[in-house]
Amino acid sequence: MTTDTNYDIVLVGGPRDGGLMNSVGSAVVELEIDGFIHRYVLTNQHTEQNGTQYTVFNYDGMIDPKGAMPGAETPDGGHHDPVDTDGE
């Protein structure tokens, strides 16, 4: 974990648990990881690490930007694979 003082938030839960970053004043942070959007939301909690105060952003879940989750059936009876880009 970095001690860069430019970072003002810590991510809790999800794939970037414990990660530090700059919120740029946002209430929601969305990260694209492996083709999925992972969302972290602002809380009123703060934590201290190495003498620096960070605002806590909790993990809110993962969404597929294509609109369906892996294994979900498509309207034509097939299956949705968010990693397969050949079917677009």
From TrEMBL:
Residues 65-88 are annotated as: Disordered. It comes from the Bacteria. Residues 76-88 have a biased composition (Basic and acidic residues). This is Uncharacterized protein. It comes from Dactylosporangium aurantiacum.
